[in-house]
């Protein structure tokens, strides 16, 4: 992408409305624009990052055996009347009427709809287990939307729903998602801690919130420091291996970790003081086993091996991609801007032409640009007619992991500078060496 032809509206001033660093940087880098309270457009640079986050979420859902579909944002109120949630859900639900005056709503979540799909087609235990997911916009009329896309009213959610014949089966499905979440957050460059979460009136202990630590987080969290040493399940994890997944789950739930709602001061005090972690965190995912809560009122049942009908055991599993983008920034930035983990960076490389219009600089840049493109890299070429200082500031602000700096002096001797955005380390090398290094 040539920056001169791109759409990346950088802000020079710090926007007043942004209270936290991720919101400030997303606005300054031209990633998002608020359209009305808590409702955002994703501008091209932001959209690139969001797409990369979604791709990782999707890959890990697929790896764990979940199957993607797509359900609509607008739902009929009827389904929600069946489950009893149409009245129970409060003002967070946006209720709409169509021209026939039929009550509709903008989905805040999809348990009812996916249960309806399930009951329409699945009749036998032989078709289980099943896990269906989509990545779709949700709307919740949050009382306090804030911090940009961290807590917005319209937001993207990956929501998966599992169906099993038995509680044991459902627990295995839960642990698949548990392991998939550990992998997902790790690939996004985050260390997320699964914390016991409130299961509300249904009870049981199968609910975890995945929290990343950040001073600006809205949740108060308490945990053991051991989490930093636990291994992330490997890419070749066998998701059908019941005992294997159980042991991953057992390790990750063996030490204390709870949000303030579930906090047990006595259990926390029992941890030696030096190993206690009391901090703030951002909830990036939430998984839940809720048994027959929806299958029973909505009549989602299958025939079991005993020939009898059984209500299926269900779970739901959410991740918020539009919250993850700012969460990654909260965890990875410096005073000059964003520092993207390579896995979600909007571009892999930015080539900075310090003197656009200079023949030698232009031709070296073109050479680098086409070599990187040919190698399948996402590359941004800063070919704007602007000062070198402005270009350096832009590159640092938007956080592309590698900068290749092309200036008139070094180009005269066939050399360029390669800068690592994270460490700031710079290295001078020939154009060929830079290409070899970065396409390898
Ligand atoms: P919170 O306690 O932060 O309101 P929640 O418990 O209501 O979250 P869930 O219903 O479990 O959230 O939704 C699953 C995921 O969707 C959350 O873990 C979060 O990543 C994301 N999410 C929920 N609400 C929002 C929001 N208003 N803006 C952005 N992402 C959200
Ligand atoms: Mg909420």
From TrEMBL:
Signal sequence range: none
UniProt-listed CDD domains: ProRS_anticodon_short (cd00861), ProRS_core_prok (cd00779)
Gene Ontology CC terms: cytosol
Main location (coarse class): cytoplasm
Keyword Glycoprotein: no
Entries under Pfam families matching the protein: HGTP_anticodon (PF03129), tRNA-synt_2b (PF00587)
Compartments it resides in: Cytoplasm
EC number, as in UniProt: 6.1.1.15
Domain Aminoacyl-transfer RNA synthetases class-II family profile, first and last residues per copy: 37-341
Recorded superkingdom: Bacteria
Catalytic activity: tRNA(Pro) + L-proline + ATP = L-prolyl-tRNA(Pro) + AMP + diphosphate
GO biological-process terms attached to the record: prolyl-tRNA aminoacylation
Any one GO molecular function term: proline-tRNA ligase activity
Keyword Protease: no
Keywords: Aminoacyl-tRNA synthetase, ATP-binding, Cytoplasm, Ligase, Nucleotide-binding, Protein biosynthesis
Quaternary organization: Homodimer.
Function per UniProt: Catalyzes the attachment of proline to tRNA(Pro) in a two-step reaction: proline is first activated by ATP to form Pro-AMP and then transferred to the acceptor end of tRNA(Pro).
NCBIfam families: PRK12325.1, proS_fam_II
Entry similarity comment: Belongs to the class-II aminoacyl-tRNA synthetase family. ProS type 2 subfamily.
The name this protein goes by in its record: Proline--tRNA ligase
């Amino acid at each position: 992408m040539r920056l001169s032809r791109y759409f990346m509206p950088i802000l020079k001033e710090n926007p007043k409305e942004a209270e936290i660093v991720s919101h400030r940087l997303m606005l300054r880098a031209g990633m998002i624009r608020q359209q009305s309270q808590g409702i955002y457009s994703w501008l091209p640079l932001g959209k690139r990052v969001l797409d990369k986050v979604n791709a990782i979420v999707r890959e890990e859902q697929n790896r764990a055996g979940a199957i993607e579909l797509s359900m609509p944002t607008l739902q009929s109120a009827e389904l929600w009347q069946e489950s009893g949630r149409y009245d129970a859900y409060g003002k967070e639900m946006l209720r709409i009427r169509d021209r026939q005056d039929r009550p509709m709503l903008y989905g805040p979540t999809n348990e009812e709809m996916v249960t309806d799909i399930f009951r329409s087609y699945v009749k036998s235990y032989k078709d289980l287990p099943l896990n269906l997911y989509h990545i779709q916009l949700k709307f919740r009329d949050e009382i306090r939307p804030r911090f940009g896309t961290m807590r917005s009213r319209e937001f993207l959610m990956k929501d998966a729903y599992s169906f099993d014949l038995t509680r044991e089966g459902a627990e295995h499905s839960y642990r698949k998602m548990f392991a998939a979440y550990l992998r997902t957050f790790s690939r996004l460059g985050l260390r997320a801690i699964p914390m016991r979460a409130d299961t509300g009136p249904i009870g049981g202990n199968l609910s975890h919130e995945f929290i990343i630590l950040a001073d600006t987080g809205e949740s108060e969290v308490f945990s053991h420091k051991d989490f930093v040493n636990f291994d992330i399940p490997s890419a070749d994890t066998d998701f059908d291996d019941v005992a294997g997944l159980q042991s991953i789950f057992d390790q990750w739930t063996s030490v204390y970790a709870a949000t303030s709602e579930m906090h047990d001061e006595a259990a926390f005090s029992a941890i030696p003081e030096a190993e206690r972690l009391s901090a703030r965190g951002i909830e990036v995912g939430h998984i839940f086993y809720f048994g027959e809560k929806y299958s029973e009122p909505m009549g989602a049942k299958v025939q079991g091996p005993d020939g009898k009908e059984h209500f299926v055991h269900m779970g739901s599993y959410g991740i918020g991609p539009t919250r993850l983008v700012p969460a990654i920034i909260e965890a990875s930035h410096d005073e000059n801007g964003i520092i993207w983990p390579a896995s979600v960076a909007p571009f892999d490389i930015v080539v900075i032409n310090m003197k656009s219009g200079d023949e030698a600089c232009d031709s070296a840049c073109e050479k680098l640009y086409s070599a990187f493109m040919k190698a399948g890299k996402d590359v941004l070429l800063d070919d704007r007619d602007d000062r070198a200082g402005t270009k350096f500031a832009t590159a640092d602000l938007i956080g592309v992991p590698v900068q290749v700096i092309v200036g008139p002096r070094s180009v005269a001797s066939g050399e360029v500078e390669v800068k690592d955005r994270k460490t700031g380390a710079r290295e001078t090398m020939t154009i060929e060496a830079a290409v070899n290094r970065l396409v390898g």
